[in-house]
Amino acid sequence: MTSVAFDPSAEAARATREILDDTLRGDARGVVVDSPPGAGKSTLVVRAALELAAAGRPLMVVAQTNAQVDDLVLRLAEKEPELPVGRLHSNDPDPYDKALDDLGNVRKSARAADLAGLDVVISTAAKWAHVKGVEPWGHAIVDEAYQMRSDALLAVAGLFERALFVGDPGQLDPFSVVGSDQWAGLSYDPSASAVSTLLAHNPELPQHRLPVSWRLPASAAPLVSHAFYPYTPFRSGTGPGDRRLSFGVPSDGSGPDRVLDEAAESGWGLLELPARHTPRTDPEAVRAVALVVRRLLDRGGAAVSERSADPVPLTPDRIAVGTAHRDQAAAVRAALAELGVGGVTVDTANRLQGREYDVTVVLHPLSGRPDATAFHLETGRLCVLASRHRHACVVVCRAGVAELLDEHPSTEPVQLGVTVKFPDGWEANHAVLSHLSEHRVTWSP
Amino acid sequence: MSLISTLARLEAVESGRAQPLATVRHRHVAERPLVLVPLTTAGEAGAPLGALVGTDREEPRLLVVPQPRDRDLRFAFLADLAEAVLPYVEDFADDVEAAERSETDPETGKKVKVEVELCADAPQLVVPGRAGVEYVRLLGRSMRFRRTAEQDPETPFPAPPRVPLLGRWLTHYGERARVPGSSLLLAATDLLNRHWATGQSSLEDQHLGALLAWIDPPEGASGAEAALRAELGRDRDGQLLCPPAGPATDPAFDNRLLAPAVERYDRARHALASAEDGEAADERLGDLHRAEREIRRLVLTQLRPTWHAVWRALDLVRALPPGPRVADRWTRDRWSFTGHRDRVRAGEPPQPRRDDAVTAANKLAARESAQTQLEAQEALDDPLVMAGRRLTGEAFVGEVVEVTMAWSESKRPAPRPLLTVRTDDLPHLAEGVKAYRSLEGKPQTAQFVRYEDDGSLVLRVLDRMGRGREPAEGSVPEKGDRLVWTLFEHDQRVGPKLPDPEETPWTHGGPPRADATESPDPVTPEDLL
What we know:
The complex is a heterodimer of chains A (445) and B (529).
Chain A: H1 8-25, E1 30-34, H2 41-54, E2 59-63, H3 66-79, E3 85-88, E4 106-109, E5 120-124, H4 125-128, E6 137-142, H5 150-156, E7 160-167, H6 194-201, E8 207-209, E9 212-213, H7 221-228, E10 235-236, E11 244-247, H8 255-266, E12 268-273, H9 283-298, E13 301-305, E14 308-313, E15 319-323, H10 326-338, E16 345-348, H11 349-352, E17 357-363, H12 374-377, H13 379-385, E18 389-398, H14 401-407, H15 425-436, E19 440-442
Parallel strand pairs in A: 1-7, 1-8, 2-5, 2-6, 3-4, 3-5, 6-7, 9-10, 12-18, 12-19, 15-16, 15-17, 17-18
Antiparallel strand pairs in A: 11-13, 13-14
Helix pairs in contact in A: 1-2, 2-3, 5-6, 7-15, 8-9, 9-10
Chain B: H1 3-15, E1 19-20, E2 34-40, E3 48-54, E4 61-64, H2 71-91, E5 96-104, E6 111-119, E7 125-127, H3 130-144, H4 163-176, E8 185-187, H5 188-195, E9 196-197, H6 208-215, H7 223-232, H8 251-273, H9 278-318, H10 326-345, H11 357-381, H12 383-391, E10 395-404, E11 418-423, E12 434-439, E13 442-451, E14 457-461, E15 482-486
Parallel strand pairs in B: 2-7, 7-8
Antiparallel strand pairs in B: 1-9, 2-3, 3-4, 5-6, 10-11, 10-15, 11-14, 12-13, 13-14
């Protein structure tokens, strides 16, 4: 059902070709790639790594978390089992995924010198920062570069001559636990993202973007693109009928069941509880989230997608619950355990970055709040929560968020020299909310 | 705001008095701090109006600029301020103790211990509020690049001799105040807000008078009433009963009292300048002195209540016993003071206008590590702070109900005892999460293993049990011990070493260039209305 004018595969392939061209044959010291959610960023990183290795260029890869590093190593080994890969790790106990021990061509060490000469060496930015006194690498790939802080790049940039920077500008910006206003507006503000510093000093670097999201369904891509990437739109790789969600057990007419039906039908569902100011771990909302997950499993959900012709049963590992705060995640986990649900991922937006599920259930960051702080309004937070799913996203929220937004316009001070990010969280929240309100199910537990 | 501080605020509203947020004092308060209460002129940034300064609460030194727009008078004020502050600062510079610092030997590249001096104590500056800290920074910036006639005989407007030096010290203090937990430059409001929760908003808590009203209300009044009076109460002439703690003054004071007085002063000066003979000049000089005395009197009325409030705030926090780890943080402040003393003595130039990329990153890293360290230390020092962390699931108190010896599976088995701990807290534990407890002041690490059926939890102790097969005596908790475990680390790991500024990489613009003079912003069409 893809439109004639837009062939997603061809578009994506063209973008990838251009990126690899600039990386392998261009003369710029850096190449920047912006990737919307689920646009095949990891695939691109793996492909670029393999091509650079094949061209005989020693490569270092910088990722942000150990999980990301291990994931990349596994993907590389899957594509090219013969490729000699080094996994540089920390001195902590259990520093890497045990699955790496089964890979014959992956050497693991806590010392960079032990891994010298391997085609590809992969580690986290934090570990790379401690590497000193080694011959610099000809090439680097910096993954999740928009989540990397400028000071982290400063610590590792001496290790490579040229680099490919890949990341999603719409996700959560890096942050600091202490004030850093005194450097706001400086091109090398240490708390800003690595890419903003890089581009401020090297504006001539080629910039690319991946045009197709393979993760987001046709129901979600337009909203996410419009709300979070207004000036760099993208499309979904699949068409309106390509993904379907169905249930073996019919609705019992309760709020959670109705919102699930709505989400299965349209890709979005808003379960709206009565307006009320609550503590962060709002017991009713938390229970509503748990109930939605419980019913999702009980009703025998099955997903049809381009990946297989037959419906695939919706298992707990294909479901995630997203929250803004850690204590909320803990409360949801406890509520799920009480309902006898296990195996469902429950985490904060920060930790869900880069992950993918069939269905997500989101506790709205502003639900039940008396105020809208910069933290809760942050564009990236909502973007992460609203873009993890392949089929449907159910948002649980107290009524009154639109009014709350109107009472709390953005009041962040304007800093000279800082590039204003569009859209701001206020606008993005309104955009998402107005779309969700078309899929609203009101319910009093 | 944490749940426990919200609760404390609610209790403050209900009881009409501020509620404690701490059982010990978490900041160092010097025996002989220098209190500085500055005032600024409305409408002109960095034009001081006056200040009360001194180490003796009964005898502050009053400095006033009768005509704040007169640059000569401003310089005279700054010179006086230097004479009030610098001798106090320099008093601490020569009382030193021997200390060691590890430095990298430039020839061998190895770490070596170097014997250095560490000042035995450091001067402490206390201002009324955060705006005061900001003003110290502003004064520092406005002074440190000035040139004296001695430094540069050609300079058209030479600064009085000690003014640039004062600027460098104030800059250093302003910058140090940004390090969490530091006490070189304190704001009285921050001191109070750290230790008490009031029943008003945190914005209102920036008003020193209102804050003190909540913590220490007058006999028979509730905190809320007293705070309202402190904020809004005016006398018959429309003047605030409790003048703002500055540096900004109350507009009613500016308009009705200060402006006419300054005008009289200006007229008197003008009249003196145009005096035609000695007798007239003498008389007009008397008028001028009277006008100046009147301004001094007026400014003092605004300064004196704040001066006493700052000392009152110091009394209140001094009444709390210091937290055990406060001295450790003060030692860092002493290092900071000693470091700047050495830079000044070595004849280094004043702090640059902006940090370069490497310095900025280093400062941010140091402050982040100070912040985490401060949070950990405050919790370890103070059961009330720890209670807040327990409520958020970051710590728990539990009784050891069983100890099972176990050993690691290696060639030389090391002890890895299992503890069964019963707790009523709800820590955020998951497999492999580490918990730390304090053993003789050092953290001992354990790892969460599993929950037992009865809800108690099992921890595996990982370190600090000696080198032998059997754990060292006293290193393993015993049955019946009630221990505090934290899920946060007690110490900070040392961060990575950043490149030297001369090796700033291409991603950050390369090394800073000394020759690059900054060009002013180009004029764009938007600049013209």
